[in-house]
């Protein structure tokens, strides 16, 4: 027991601080004034950073301070670019501190630093994006002839976002979501203090409902990781096992890893629900990271009486859809429900804003990789997803999309198995981290899955070509007849 506690001391402290953050939520929510909430939240955030990081607390505090200064010193036109490179530059320095004669920080401090990067860079892009959107809107209003367009969804920005230095400080260091996420916009943070939703949402009920599965995740993680430890995959005993055993071992490694992520993310969501941050009326069609996507400005005008009787959700701070993570058929769908808050950040900050269309996906994946770290395992895991997706998309359209009944269930199971196997194979690299360790395992299974991917892709391309050539072609006469029937 004592050996286990000593080995996992940092994780136990981190878990305890997450539970403390959940427990303190109702008291934080009950504070009567906005300023009391803001300063208390920031003080708690700084205290958590110091407890987790010790002397290394200087890194997240200093980097956030430099980022805030950059946002205010640079013009609104370029603040997002300056802040992006500054924050990621400091992230490089932080992770290579030993090269500069400084001690490396713990993994827990690294998690805090990663969240700080998301928040500071994210708010800089919000400031710039809202400025561009309002300038575009003003230009359209000044046009002599303007079309009235009815939109089903709000634009990304419907009002100007321009926080002062104090608010940037509070957003960067507020304890809610600081330890391990989820990421939420500055707009969500500001709404928390100025809109009445947290008073009327069933925060306690949502928190209890969210927390109830955590013991299961923790138990499964401890059981799986002790029965099938990661280091065993590098031993000679493992290499002497059958090929099927070696091929399937990453399944249990990835299963244990998922339970660890589920428990951490679920606790992180519970910190938000306990404090009431991220509560919005359900008719706003709230989206992870973003918040309301429909009628946001009308929601802001909601009266106290309307707010009292509204129905609420916490979709804005939902990171994981656990059931879907386990059951969806395709890797593409799996990526949509895994760590949704971070994926939202990558989409709005990198993918949507990068100017060269053909490079959007590659740049988004590259930023995701370097945000996680410099280890080869992150590249092997994240950057190889598109290659599997290329083959998967072909088979999905050819066989699964239009299938029905038992045929669809059988094809769906096969695709689910291949998707899960692919994720497990990639997760092995993510967990092993360094190139030499990854090479040891991949060599033990002859790097087979990359070959399988390549063969799947070639066969898929061939089948797709055959399918296209076998479809009946419309002649000119058929087209004319079709057009006449439409007119009549």
Automatic annotation (TrEMBL):
Transmembrane segments: 12-31, 43-71, 78-96, 111-133, 363-389, 446-464
Main localization (coarse): membrane
Membrane topology, record value: Multi-pass membrane protein
Protein's pathway: Phospholipid metabolism; Lipid metabolism; phospholipid metabolism
Keywords attached to this entry: Acyltransferase, Membrane, Transferase, Transmembrane, Transmembrane helix
Localization per Swiss-Prot or TrEMBL: Membrane
Family that this chain belongs to: Belongs to the membrane-bound acyltransferase family.
Coiled coil stretches, renumbered: none
Stated name of the protein: Lysophospholipid acyltransferase 7
InterPro entries given in the database record: LPLAT_7/PORCN-like, MBOAT_fam
């Amino acid at each position: 027991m004592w050996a286990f506690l000593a080995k996992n001391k940092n994780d136990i402290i981190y878990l305890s601080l997450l539970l403390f953050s959940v427990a303190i939520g109702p008291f934080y929510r009950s504070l009567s004034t906005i300023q009391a909430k803001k300063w208390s939240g920031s003080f708690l955030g700084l205290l958590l950073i110091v407890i987790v990081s010790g002397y290394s607390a200087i890194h997240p505090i200093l980097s956030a301070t430099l980022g805030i200064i950059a946002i205010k010193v640079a013009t609104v036109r370029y603040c997002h670019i300056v802040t992006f490179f500054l924050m990621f530059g400091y992230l490089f320095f932080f992770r290579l501190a030993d090269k500069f004669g400084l001690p490396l920080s713990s993994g827990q401090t690294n998690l805090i630093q990663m969240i700080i990067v998301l928040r500071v860079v994210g708010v800089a892009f919000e400031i710039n994006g809202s400025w561009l959107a309002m300038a575009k809107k003003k230009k359209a209003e000044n046009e002599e002839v303007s079309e009235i367009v009815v939109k089903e969804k709000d634009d990304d920005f419907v009002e100007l976002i321009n926080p002062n230095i104090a608010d940037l400080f509070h957003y960067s260091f507020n304890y809610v979501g600081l330890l391990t996420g989820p990421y939420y916009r500055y707009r969500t943070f500001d709404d928390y203090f100025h809109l009445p939703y947290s008073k009327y949402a069933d925060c306690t009920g949502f928190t209890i409902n969210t927390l109830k599965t955590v013991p299961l995740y923790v138990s499964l993680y401890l059981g799986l990781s002790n029965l099938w430890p990661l280091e065993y995959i590098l031993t000679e005993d493992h290499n002497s096992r059958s090929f099927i055993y070696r091929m399937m071992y990453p399944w249990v490694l990835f299963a244990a890893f998922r339970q660890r992520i589920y428990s951490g993310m679920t606790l992180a969501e519970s910190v938000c629900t306990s404090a009431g941050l991220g509560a919005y009326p359900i008719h706003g069609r709230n989206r992870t990271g973003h918040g309301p996507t429909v009628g946001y400005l009308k929601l802001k005008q909601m009266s106290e009486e309307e707010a009292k009787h509204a129905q609420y959700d916490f979709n804005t701070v939902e990171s994981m859809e656990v059931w879907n993570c386990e059951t969806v058929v395709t890797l593409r769908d799996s990526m949509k429900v895994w760590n949704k808050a971070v994926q939202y950040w990558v989409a709005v900050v990198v993918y949507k804003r990068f100017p060269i269309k053909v490079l959007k996906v590659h740049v988004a994946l590259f930023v995701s990789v370097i945000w996680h770290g410099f280890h080869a395992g992150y590249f092997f895991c994240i950057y190889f997803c598109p290659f599997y997706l290329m083959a998967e998309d072909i088979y999905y359209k050819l066989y699964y999309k239009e299938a029905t009944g038992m045929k669809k269930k059988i094809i769906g199971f096969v695709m689910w198995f291949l998707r899960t196997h692919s994720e497990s194979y990639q997760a092995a690299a993510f967990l092993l981290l360094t190139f030499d360790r990854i090479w040891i395992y991949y060599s033990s299974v002859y790097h087979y899955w990359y070959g399988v991917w390549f063969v799947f892709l070639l066969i898929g391309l061939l089948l797709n070509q055959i399918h296209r050539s076998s479809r009946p072609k419309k002649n000119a006469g058929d087209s004319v007849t079709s057009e006449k029937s439409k007119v009549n």
